[in-house]
Amino acid sequence: MATKTSKEIRNGSRFMVLRSVYVRGTVTRAQISADAGLSPATVTTLVGELVAEGVLREAGQVSSQGGRPTVTFQADPDRGALLAVDVAETYIRVDLFDVSLARLDVERVELATGTPSIATVAEQIRECSRRLLARHRELDGRVLGAGVSLPGQVDPERGVDVFAPNWGWHDVPLLQPLEQALTVPVRIDNPLMALATGELWFGAGRRFRQFVAVNLGTGVGAGIIVDGQLLRGPGNSAGEWGHTTLVWDGRACRCGRTGCVEAYVGVEGFRTTLGEISPGHDLLDVTHHRDFMERLMRAEAAGDEAAQSALLRTGDYLAAGIGNLVNLLNPEHVSVLGWITRYTGAELHDRVRERIAQECLPGPSRTVSIGFTEADGEGVGLGMAVLALEAFLERVGLPSSSSSQTTPSPREAADTADGWVIPRPGATD
Fold first, then answer.
1. Highest CATH level, class, for 204-376
2. Alpha carbons 364 and 369: distance in angstroms, whole number
């Protein structure tokens, strides 16, 4: 492994400072130092930089034993706002956050079935963000940037969607139409990386340094956290667990291969399993993914034997897939996220936990914990808000290495040169 440069070490330290602030809300330098394992002098310097940029502010003072009062700090919500856009195969959701990462508002639109162009997607995003910001005129000119999650394999450095099989996208340029639609700097990524980033900052990352964030939805993937850092790989495609083989010569997958994990535990995996158990089942005609999952679980709760069997069998597939991850990576924890978990409830959770010991080697299975988060679309938005914040800090010269590249890409450098940087409050030309 290459030795980290002093710049990379500093960026990583800044990430630890920021995460301490965002996790605690209000924090002292001493608390940051303890959380991050950094020297008091380093913390003082990094906090000073963030205060000067307006990202942090003094929150007050607390008394100390016999000495000067201790200053506390918090993220400054008045620094500006961030847009977080979750583009899925069936909907677009736009969240508005302030710099403290408090969610202020949300706008959502359903997408028609079919294969949209990036121009169509960008126009829908434009309309959602326009309606959203029209309710917050106080933020005119104060949106610092946007994070946009798009399905498939996304390359943030090149600004393209490398492969989105459901839409037939191959190397589709994204940044120009998205920046024209949103009129602010844009950071793109895919939902897997967004969910894993949110979990790193606000979920399992608070307790574990080695964990896996599994995303269950229309697509399936696994964000891998190693030593407190999100593993991306040189092409930003690390974690494509959904397209590893679960069943040799098995079901056709939308990626063009067969037997993939996604073909068994994604939404269409649930549908295919139900069809194998009950070929004439009424729910097989429900094309909308969320409607299908909601009605499947209502049928299961009402005693529909085919729905019950489909849920249990899918739980077995999921346990086998997670077992492979546990055997391969030996994580401390596995977080199961994504909108499917909201609908499946305790039945799927219990089935996976019941079966996981059978799917893992004895050593890893004894040390791993498994948690399910039943959020509905909030995790991707939160993760993209974090990435938008990090991109903003990078543009103003304060990058963080938590989940993005530490060296600005040519595109990002051009953005800065073109005047994208938003001045600090009170700054003059």
1. alpha beta
2. 10
This prediction has a pTM of: 0.85
pLDDT band at 428 (very low <50, low <70, confident <90, very high): very low
Domain definitions of the chain by residue range: 6-75, 78-189+379-417, 204-376
Token readout for 316 is 């077995």
Instruction: For residue range 295-330, list pLDDT tens digits in order.
Output: 999 999 999 999 999 999 999 999 999 999 999 999
- Range 171-186 average pLDDT: 96
- For residue 306, the tally of other CB atoms under 10 A from its CB is 20
- State how beta strands 160-164 and 153-155 pair: antiparallel
Fold entry, domain 6-75? Arc Repressor Mutant, subunit A (1.10.10)
Task: Write out the H or E segment, with its range, that includes residue 371.
Answer: strand 369-372
Distances (CA, A) of 24 to 12, 17, 167, 222, 408: 18, 11, 41, 27, 29
pLDDT of residue 12: 85
The yes or no reply on domain 78-189+379-417 and CATH 3.30.420.40 is yes
